[in-house]
Amino acid sequence: MSRIFLSPPHMGQDEESFLSDAFQSNWITPLGPHVDAFEREIATRVGVAHAAALSSGTAALHLALKVLDVNAGDEVLVSTLTVSASANPIAYVGARPVFIDCDRESWNIDPDLLAEELRACDRRSKLPAAVIAVDLYGQCADFAPIRAACSRYQVPLIEDAAEALGATHQGRPAGSLGELGVLSFNGNKIITTSGGGMLVSDRQDWIERARFLASQARTPAPHYEHSEIGFNYRLSNLLAAVGRGQLRVLDQRIERRRANNAYYRAALALPGIEFMPEASYGRSNGWLTCLTFDPAAFGATREQVRLHLETLDIESRPVWKPMHLQPAFAQCRVRGGDVAKELFERGLCLPSGSNLTVREREGVADAVRAVSSSAG
Question: Based on C-alpha coordinates, what's the Rg of the chain?
């Protein structure tokens, strides 16, 4: 077999025709009819009123902070168990991240610890400028208590749903659960535009402000007029065309990835293995299947399993290294952190692509079992 990748792109039937239309119309620059249509279609799918198509999910999060007027000296609370793209934009605006541990029930930001930190900030009379709740590995955070805590202190809530398009929380779509939502269409996501992202909200003024900043903050004039600093963050019409085709098969991609997860759970029901729980309050999109290893019970460490898979040309990856353990954020405050640290030390993400074949999936499970001293 050729190399089995963790989460490769999976093209459908419509991307090429949309892309051809963009070429034939000569709309190959940022903006264009496919960008407009993609924004409308994503907004409808997520259940929000407005969307701005951007060059990446990171750009979307950066602009979310900008439209909320987060500035130098401010603090922003964010989950520690996430990719650096959830925290880097906080530094872009000169603010300081404060990391919050995850819970064991969902691996997402712990609502109780978040509430504790907000209370502590309130006692110091220095509330954060925003909270970023990350939807990890395709599963929504527990937004009912998160929203309640943010509302109590009137702190704006951003949902980083970069990994969770198509997931739900109590029936509501990922991306619609904060005052602003961030989506990603990076090459490894459940649908992709190669590179791209989206900022979504029910607030028209925020999305219009984001579009303005994303287009170099150019003021309407026959010449180029700029009264403030902007960014080159708009999505290409070509990439939006690909995204429109991908969006049409999102539900199929979700079902394939959830089927992978169900297969792994059955095939790897071994001592010492625990899978990332699916929280009762929602439905994951199954983006990545993640599990942890107890070396004493399983007979091997996470890293031994990963290295064995690599010898067979199977890509796997440790669970995100917590942000509070990253050298770039070593000076930042953290509340808790032990749960995220343990999940990183023991956690592994298995190949989960929606185009993973039955034979490939079986090969991955066989390779994991081969490392275990408990598999018999």
Answer: 21
d(CA 161, CA 38): 17
Chain segment 188-201, per-residue pLDDT in tens? 999 999 999 999 99
Angle ∠(348,351,354) on CA atoms, nearest 5: 140
Judging by DSSP bridges, how do beta strands 218-219 and 225-226 pair with one another? antiparallel
Give the position of tokens 């090459």. 187
Nearest to 345 by CA among 373, 306, 314, 310: 306
Choose the weakest-confidence range: 63-72, 155-164, 220-229, 285-294: 220-229
For the chain, domains (ranges, CATH) are: 15-247 (3.40.640.10), 250-371 (3.90.1150.10)
Torsion angles phi and psi, residue 361, rounded to 5: -60, -45
Residue 375: what residue type? A
Are 277 and 375 in contact, with CB atoms under 8 Å apart?
no
Tokens 């702190």 identify what position? 155
Q: Residues 134, 100: contact at Cβ < 8 Å?
A: no
What does the alpha-carbon distance between residue 127 and residue 98 come to, in Å, rounded to a whole number? 11
Number of Cβ within 10 Å of residue 139's Cβ equals: 29
pLDDT in tens, 258-304: 999 999 999 999 999 999 999 999 999 999 999 999 999 999 999 99
Confidence of residue 223 (pLDDT cuts 50, 70, 90): confident
**Measured between alpha carbons, how far is 187 from 23 in angstroms, rounded to an integer?**
21
pLDDT 10s digits, 226-244: 999 999 999 999 999 999 9
| Amino acid present at 9 | P
Distance CA 210, CA 224 (A): 18
